[in-house]
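Running log. JK asked me to keep both predictions on one page so they can be read side by side. First protein, sequence followed by its tokens:
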Amino acid sequence: PKVDTWDNEIAVLSPVRPQGKLTTLFKPASPRLVTDVDLHFNGDKLLFSMPDAKKNWQIHEVRADGTGWRQLTPGDQPEVHCYDSCYLPDGRIVFISTAVLQGVPCNASVIVGMMYQMDADGKNIRQVCFEQDHDYNPSVMNDGRVLYLRWDYTDTPHVWNRILMSMNPDGTGQSAYYGGSSYWPNSVFYSRAIPRQPTKFVGIVTGHHEGRVGELVVFDPAKGTQETDGVVQRIPGRGQRVEPRIEDKLTEHSWPKFAHPWPLSDKYFLAAGKPEPESLWGIYLVDVFDNMVLLREEEHQALLEPIPFRPRPAPPVIVDRAKPDRKD
């Protein structure tokens, strides 16, 4: 990927509405792709991934006021990428790295990333997951464990075998959390625990050969951990049954599409969303009552061109006829 042809930044939207002002929090000195943002529990700093001058991905940190930018992972390892980091409750950090120097069996040029851990200052790096294939998207659960996606390959129907796993922050106690011995879902990317819920989480359900965007689904493993047994609801889709279809490109023709969900409660979520194929990607406030409220979207422009904000009408707001108590 051409990671040095992107004109992007980490920005703050205030007030949180389509007409709100965007203020730069961090912008690379030269074109670089910036992604994988993870906010600290105290809200005073954040992690992100960005390529270095050698185009190797590295973990970076910056304070919430835009100061104190520093690179945490070492840049002296040729062909090693570090990305997709997550703060741990004890101050350490887990992240994904290609330091194992492996490729997937079907295409050795697809580099495998596995879970590593380091101190808050980037020192004492050690590997904590030892797989044949990829680990993805670590996040902290409400009980302090780490939730992550693992792809298995050998002796399995590998197109349908990305399993949500959990482990202790030090890498011990690794076990399946959702999707073991299941053909649905193919993958659940960007999974995050829902606040004040002991077992519920939200994630993006998608197929195998179609990337990481897909359907926004709430799960509760207390109800079940296989197929759709633990599905609480697809958003939007209040009151509708989710069918456990067995397809490679499971959500290719499903709209709206979502990515990067961030649960605010068991009813309200922030997420990147694309309502229809012709829509722009935007940031939406969505809820279990099938409302989608556009908070911000941007037109895509050529590299380094000004990006004017063009207000677009918000999508229709669909309110549940039961008129739920919004105080929840």
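And the second, directly underneath as requested:
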Amino acid sequence: MPTFSYKARNTRGELLSGRLEGASEASVADELLRSGLTPVDITGAVAKTTGEGGRDVGQVFGQLFAEKVGEADLMLFSRQMASLLKAGVPILRALASLAESSAHKAFQAILLDLREGLSAGRELSVCLRKHPAVFQAFFVNMVRVGETTGRLDEVFMRLFHHLEFEREMRERVKGALRYPSFVIAALAIALGVINVLVIPAFAKVYKSSNAELPMMTKVLIGFSDFTVAWWPFILGGLVLAGIALRLWLRTTEGRYRWDKHLLRVPIVGKIVHKAALARFAKGLGMTYQSGVPIVQGLTNAAQVVGNAFIASRIEQMRDGVERGESLTRTAATTAVFTPVVLQMMAVGEETGELDRLLIEIGELYQRDVEYEIRTLSEQIEPILIAGLGGIVLVVALGVFLPIWDLGATMTRK
């Protein structure tokens, strides 16, 4: 659909300009009139060179190499919008100021597009929805609530705190997984070096002695010979398996099954579970506090928990609430919430302070996650030491048993 540049005046007589998509100049004029603007000038936009699919070639390359909008940029945007709107700055002027001061070119273009959409008479939430890669559904729905209630500055401040909480939780969970991942990778590299370099050297010595080797040594030598002979195929298979795993995790079923089994992993699953409960409680409490209906709040909370299995259980809760059941009763049937969460939900529903207690639950589990991460090394060290000891024992016995046998034989002679 072609794009047209326009100039129009609003009810105050101010001259506004922007761009709109439409079938013709007449359709663009009709849309401006419906938005309360009086068209002054409408001209067709300059056509650009497109590829076979009709997409602008420059736009395609720009999307491939453009700097991505990060979470820090979104946090800064929310914080600044909250401050500007609270100070009484009109939203159009606020967006223009943020676009001028932004050092991020991609985000600057998005801010200018938001301003154009607002100038055309659209709501901010509608303009945000045009950029789903930057503004998630949870963010857009919260802004829509702010527009409806007239508390947009408060909503942006709550979004800032929510994004800050999300980033902190994500970094803490990544930090919890980093240590065991590093240790397992180091063990895998060590085993690879032993198989490729150490065991073949000992195998040559054993072969020259013509002695009968223990079964454990034969197994190690056989595995080492297989690794040395087929290592390109083994490496290629591991790479293909990694790519297949990533593609599988992008599917709905794959992500659901992975997240479900991740919750059952010792130590790590407990941390992931508590982090998901903290996100759920904080997200639902914030939306409910902002005036979002509980059904819509559950939909929003399901989008921010970061675990597909728990998100499906939250959607199950939403269906139960729609049928008229209480939040606590539907939460109890999901089997993913702890007794503490269920009790505080029940108290919140009885006293009418559900939003405050949900936020307290989020803070409680946030502190629990922090404690679990601080003590993670103490919890995981015995497992790693036992695993490392077992590997060293097998390798040591397999390598040195034949040497001891040879030494005993020579002593008897």
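Observation for JK regarding the second prediction: Confidence is low (pLDDT under 50) at residues 46-65.
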